[in-house]
Amino acid sequence: MKALSLFGLKRPKRTRSVRFKLLAIALLPTLVILPLLLGVMMVRWNSKFDALLTSKVSGDLTIAHQYFAHILENTGEQIESLGQSVAFRTVLTSEDPDAVNALLAKRQQDLGLDFLYLIDGGDQDGSDQSGAFNGDDNWPVIASAFAGQSSTSVDIFSNTDLAAISPDLAARAQLDLIETPNAVPTTRNAETRGMVVHSASHVTLPSGGDGALVGGILLNQNLGFIDTINDLVYRQSSLPEGSQGTATLFLDDVRVSTNVRLFADRRALGTRVSSIVRKTVLEDGKVWLDRAFVVNDWYISAYEPIKDSYGKRVGMLYVGFLEAPFAQTKYESLLILIGAFLFVAALSVPIFLRWARGIFKPLERMTNTIGRVENGDFSARTNLNQVHDEISLVAEHLDDLLDQVQERDKRLRAWNDQLNARVDARTRELRDANQALETTTKQLIMSEKLAAIGEITAGVAHEINNPVAVIQGNLDVLRELLGDHVRLADTEIRLIDEQVNRINLIVTKLLQFAKPEEYAGFVERHSVGQVIDDCLPLVAHLLGRAEIEVVREQTSTRLVLMNRTELQQVLVNLMVNALHAMPERGSLTLTDIDQDRDGRPGILITVRDTGSGMDADVLNRIFDPFYTTKRREGTGLGLSITKTLIDRQSGALDVQSTPGQGTTFTIWLPEVN
Questions:
Q1: How many angstroms separate the CA atoms of 318 and 245, rounded?
Q2: What torsion do the CA atoms of 294, 297, 302, 308 make, to the nearest 10 degrees?
Q3: Are 532 and 592 in contact (CB under 8 A)?
């Protein structure tokens, strides 16, 4: 009997330890809630920080836009003032073209303009008073001046227009395009157009007609202009150490004036803006306020479109500063917060754990004690010597209760041992009686089967012998009656004799099975090797059905005393079983050697196949009468008769088999004396 569990109850299902609950209560605020709050704060702070950077770059773009607008406004005012000045009116009234050209050339240099010329509104061939090219008088700013209204705008001049004004301007405007990552693909190799601050002021000619005083500044490679914007927007110490402010003027998507560096001493002129910025600003007409990859690094960037006098978006104004120092600042701040959290956790968690240990340690000791008791160790105790709180008091009461349980368990075990001893004794008696009954039953069943087979066999043999004797007798009478005419049916009569002899042989074998001690037949000395060779033709029809290789090994020199027919029956039966175990292909090995057993000389015959083999259950029953694995093809008597014949000769029949590898039968027969 099994020992009773504690208090006779089933052991409860183990649940999660209270240690984890106490630790969760102690550490949840520090290790879970606080990190979540810090994470939320960091995400919010990061978004605010990015918004602050965006706000700053937006303010920088406003300053750059104001300066650019100031340049346009100042250029227009200067040209308008020149057109209304006394000196210009005096020279113009003199109608001396050389004097006009000399004054315009001097004032162009003084005002920092790249070109300055006068157009006569009545001149239809596109020439000024001195015959110099005056550009396309269809520009909106020029048309506005002819209409009496001064105007200033940004216009894009073709290289042909610039060359007509000045070959130097055409050369300065030309920039080789540099392949830029993320830019819109293009087949152009160079940018030849010029972005010009184009201004025109109305002038009344001495003849009373309308004229226009036209001037402009080429912005391509105008490094002074772009550096001034950069200095205004990003004054010294306006950015943290390591950052860098940049400004750029784009003609379409090409940098025509910039302080962004391609290399240490080379500006990124001819590089192009990324496709996403180009689409947002030039195609959609929106202002870009976000991080962007500029040439070779990430910048907090601001782009706004620039429109010409026709109202088309022809370029962009850009300002921005390096993102890396600000990103580094964010990462450093994050690391500082994480470090501070870890420092606080390292100081507070041990304190929390120490407090929690004072609670869960006694509980764990009680749990371990109960577990040991449930496993059979009734001497286990908590042994909490000092009582400090309610938990320790419960542990002491538990020890007292376990003392009582242990004493009761000792008495129960004593009673249990006595009962088990009695049960074991009765069980052994019943087991022995049952085994004896099973053995007797098997023997009775076997005897009844064999007796029934013997009676049936004897009866069948008797019933067959009578008609066979009649046939044989009438056949002899037939020979006498036919006399010399018997030669006419000689073949048929001979066949009848053979079949009658065959029936007699079958009947004799049946009688040998039924009463082997009376019908053993003639016994003589035989060479086992010769008998094996004579058996091979008897199974030739089975060998031809599959790819069977026969391996023959004969080394025996001794003789055995046994009926030749019985020995052939044994060998043929084993060969047929082996061939049935190899339905497609295999190897059949037949050997005979001289071997002594228990001091007696004899011969060992081996029949080995490489067939399907047998498991242990089949091996234990193969010699039982009527047991077969061939279903409809077998009777289950072959191996039983084989073993009977070998045992009658004081021999031994053994078998070894491995499923999937094959079976080996060994026959040992004593040598004839």
A1: 11
A2: -10
A3: yes
Within a 10 A sphere around the Cβ of 330, how many other Cβ atoms?
Answer: 15
Burial label, 281 (beta-carbon count in 10 A; 0-12, 13-18, 19+): buried
Q: Count of CB atoms within 10 A of residue 203's CB?
A: 26
Look at residue 128 in the predicted model and tell me its pLDDT: 46
Nearest 5 degrees, angle CA 517-CA 519-CA 521? 110
CATH class of 524-670: alpha beta
Coil vs helix vs strand at 547? strand
End-to-end CA distance of the chain: 62
Give the span between the Cα atoms of 615 and 610, in whole angstroms. 14
Sign of the Cα pseudo-torsion (460, 461, 466, 472, in order): positive
What's 33's DSSP letter?
I
Chain CA centroid to CA 658, Å: 41
Distance CA 567, CA 192 (A): 116
- Reading the block at residue 558, the tokens are 């001794």
Residue-wise burial string across 629-654, b where 16 or more C-beta atoms lie within 10 A, e elsewhere: eeeeebeebbbbbbbbbbeebebbbe
Rounded to an integer, what distance in angstroms lies between the CA atom of residue 561 and that of residue 554? Answer: 18
> b/e map of 390-426 (b: 16 or more CB within 10 Å)?
ebbeebeebeeebeeeeeebeeeeeeeeeeeeeeeee
Cα–Cα distance, 500 to 44 (Å, whole number):
114
Q: List, for residues 478-498, the tens digit of each pLDDT value.
A: 888 888 887 888 888 888 887
Domain extents in the chain: 15-377, 408-519, 524-670
DSSP code string of 584-616 = SEEEEEEEEEEEEETTEEEEEEEEEE-S----H
550 three-state secondary structure: strand
Q: Is the pLDDT of residue 401 over 90?
A: no
pLDDT in tens, 177-221: 998 888 899 888 999 999 999 999 999 888 878 889 999 999 999
Cα separation of 228 and 217, whole Å?
15
Question: Is the whole model's pTM more than 0.70, yes or no?
Answer: no
Tell me the backbone φ, ψ of residue 633, rounded to 5 degrees: -85, -20
Beta strand pairing call for 190-191 and 194-204: unpaired
Report CA-CA distances (Å) from 298 to 232, 242, 249, 274, 295. Answer: 22, 13, 18, 12, 8
The HSE-up count of residue 201 (CA atoms within 13 Å, CB side) is 20
Longest dimension (CA), the chain: 179
Q: How far is CA 526 from CA 131, 177, 378, 616, 652, in A?
A: 145, 111, 76, 35, 18
Check: CB of residue 273 under 8 Å from CB of residue 317.
no
pLDDT average, residue stretch 641-661 = 87
Instruction: Please tell me the predicted confidence (pLDDT) of residue 73.
Output: 92
Q: Take residue 663 and report the two structure tokens written for it.
A: 């079976």
* Residue 652 vs residues 163, 190, 232, 443: alpha-carbon distances, Å: 124, 108, 117, 21
Q: What percentage of the chain has pLDDT greater than the value 90?
A: 23
What is the C-alpha separation between 657 and 666, in angstroms, rounded?
12
